[in-house]
Amino acid sequence: MAHVVPADPQAVVTVKKKAQPSRSWVLLDSTGETTVLEVDKYAIMHRVNIHARDLRILDPLLSYPSTILGRDGAIVLNLEHIKAIITSEEVLLRDPSDEYVVPVVQELQRRLPPVNAFHQGQEYTGGQNDVEAGDEDESPFEFRALEVALESICSFLAARTLELESAAYPALDELTSQISSRNLDRVRKLKSAMTRLTARVQKVRDELEQLLDDDDDMADLYLSRKLAGASPVSGSGAANWYPASPTIGSKISRASRASIATVRGDENDVEDLEMLLEAYFMQIDGTLNKLTTLREYIDDTEDYINIQLDNHRNQLIQLELFLSSGTVCLSICSLVAGIFGMNIPYTWNTDHGYMFKWVLIVTGILCSVLFILIMSYARFKGLVGS
């Protein structure tokens, strides 16, 4: 059971400083036990011996980029909803009551205890089961904690991407079939959400890529190696540095482990951590590819919509040209009819009343010919469709 403890009185700095607000943290040790802490940043600094500038990275009131930093005694992790400090023996996690952090705490409780702890007290059964149990390896504490955090982050972003895809593709298809203000506004909101999600996924991918490109940064994450003061490979204990949890980052064949362990011996060897990070890099890269595909689909849909709108616009222009031409011809016909229809006494109008209808007929024919000529010229110039 998790319990709340007050701030450590020894962590109070004797020099007067501005009072710092207490924040909620959850502490998980190597046995999976949890303790909820309400402490300020000075108590955290005192507990894990971390510098203030590194702790500021986890401050939600300040804007700091996503990062995974390896310091002398801790790993500072600030990715997505995970803000944690990992040491070689314990994990400090910010905001344990957050709905996205609670599953992480539960998974840490399940995965942090050593693998051998699950087999204590069990009787020897012999046979293949015993061999398989003996083949299970235990990775360092900080690697198990880091793996849980990366798994949670990648799974969280993958789930958000799946939700976005399930909403975006039907909306785009509906927009294609019927262009309306409602559908356009719906797609606009989905595109904005996709842009924000892509930026979040890109940040995580860039951070993992930056780690993979720098062996020194990865070497800084070997907290247990630093404490031991030697290479993790020593005799039969070489395989213990491989992840053993059932996630994608830990599914490493025993044959690969044996072959790699024979070439170990350098303190700067980071191949085991590199394999772990590459697995989650591939997963987050796959999520980014899905978002890229969705963006391309949205762009293609926008191009199709623009083509349809251009077509409708051209049809309206043709209609406007048709009406304008008809208006000109009718205006000419009305002008002639108006001139000859005025009640003005003219000598040539005497006993020639029958001429009025012929004037209208001839004028109507001439106006019709003029309209046909205008439309033929517009079609010849490509202003209207055939």
From TrEMBL:
<dbReference type="GO" id="GO:0016020">
    <property type="term" value="C:membrane"/>
</dbReference>
<comment type="function">
    <text>Magnesium transporter that may mediate the influx of magnesium.</text>
</comment>
<dbReference type="InterPro" id="IPR045863">
    <property type="entry name" value="CorA_TM1_TM2"/>
</dbReference>
<keyword id="KW-1133">Transmembrane helix</keyword>
<feature type="transmembrane region" description="Helical">
    <location>
        <begin position="358"/>
        <end position="378"/>
    </location>
</feature>
<feature type="transmembrane region" description="Helical">
    <location>
        <begin position="321"/>
        <end position="346"/>
    </location>
</feature>
<keyword id="KW-0460">Magnesium</keyword>
<dbReference type="GO" id="GO:0015095">
    <property type="term" value="F:magnesium ion transmembrane transporter activity"/>
</dbReference>
<protein>
    <recommendedName>
        <fullName>Magnesium transporter</fullName>
    </recommendedName>
</protein>
<feature type="coiled-coil region">
    <location>
        <begin position="187"/>
        <end position="214"/>
    </location>
</feature>
<keyword id="KW-0175">Coiled coil</keyword>
<dbReference type="InterPro" id="IPR039204">
    <property type="entry name" value="MRS2-like"/>
</dbReference>
<dbReference type="InterPro" id="IPR002523">
    <property type="entry name" value="MgTranspt_CorA/ZnTranspt_ZntB"/>
</dbReference>
<dbReference type="Pfam" id="PF22099">
    <property type="entry name" value="MRS2-like"/>
</dbReference>
<keyword id="KW-0812">Transmembrane</keyword>
<keyword id="KW-0472">Membrane</keyword>
<dbReference type="Pfam" id="PF01544">
    <property type="entry name" value="CorA"/>
</dbReference>
<keyword id="KW-0406">Ion transport</keyword>
<comment type="similarity">
    <text>Belongs to the CorA metal ion transporter (MIT) (TC 1.A.35.5) family.</text>
</comment>
<keyword id="KW-0813">Transport</keyword>
